[in-house]
Amino acid sequence: MSFSNDQYSGINGAIFSPTTPYFNPNKWDVNIVSEDVMFRNNYGYISDKSVLGLLKGDIKTASHRRGIRGDSESNVLDFYTNHFVSYYVENDVMGPSFSFKQKIKDQTFRLGFFTRLRTQSSVKDFDNYMRYANQEIIEPKEYAFQPVKVNLMNWGEIGLNLSTNLYTTNTQELIVGANLKYLIGLDGAVINSKNQIKLEADTISNLGRVDIYASNYNIDASYATNYDFDGEKYSLKSRGNGFALDLGIALVNRRLNDELYDFKLSANIMDIGYVNFKGENHQLYNPSQRVQIQNNPTFDNTDFESISQYMKLLSNEVYGDENESLKGNKFTIGLPTSLNINMSKKIRDNHYWNVNWIQRTPIFENSLKRINVLQTSYAIQKDGFAIAPSVSLYDYENVTFGGYIRIGPLILGSDNALPFVFKQKKLNAGSFYFGIKLYPFWDSEAKRRNREPCYCD
To answer: What is the distance between the alpha carbons of residues 271 and 60, in angstroms, rounded to a whole number?
Structure first.
């Protein structure tokens, strides 16, 4: 996000605001490849570890019975005991993309094309019934598992970016921009538990675990995937499609004859759209049937070969018919719609103070929900170099430190950098992005002015 404020971000900045490419002083720029990865959760952690330290692979899973605990030992995968937990995972790869500037009469246009591969999954306030098994203690005799909705999507985007100035004076501009996106659904899943599920623990089995039964369930589950379970391979092909729109507007103040802005304020609504998938829809609802979910021989003695096979087993447990739960073959997942507000102020030449605010605003059925972020950064930007430290507030409760550096065609950054290089007492989050771009970073404002046509006698 901090890199999106770089005036040389070009087409890469279009994914945060469709007006951003307009402010690139260069006539053109090309993205070769870039990737942005972020994860955050309060369910599990690895003790005394950094993200780079995970490459060593010396991680043990906690076992309270054997005295292996994350609060007293390093390199242990342990679990929080929160009643409710949340997680957020995002991966965003931008492939070959470009933008260029063109003047038509007295109006300036920015036209761009981009390709992306995106993955996102999140859940808010998931009932952490697993905390009993994680601590290796007996589950309570009765437990009310709260309703929850979980979704996941893996999809591709082919997008067209367009921005232009509606109003221009020597010192002010009003810019509008839009991204038109064709969506290719690759994988998707939605689990919607509508009722408070009653869980009952009965007798202790010879496995040393109690028999657990579920009742009062009402669950809708839909999925589509490109993973071939028979061939044990993944193949890229469309399992659904859709369209989406990003809209933005920016008000800019400039100093007279200054190529770069003095102040910018932009408002954007991003990811307005959804994907229609072709897959399987299942409903699990039978008030008279109690289902055993732990120590059930049907599941314990079966080698699972596919999601479809698992759903048939569940259907048979709930209805006594392996095909009864299947209700259809179409479902929809909405994109992670958000409101993005950005303010950027020049402090002095090449120095900018930036503020970003991203607020999730899901509007479609089964919409993905992106994380809320409030961020500020201070950037030093030049043609071939930029650096910017940043401070971010995630979901209005978690503070992180990060930043980025741009050297020629290479961009490296993180909005949560400390977990990558420094050991964390409880490693449970991190973010990282990189990019490789082509643009005339040897250019300068003086050279660009010399190339402008001279209308004089």
So the answer is: 40
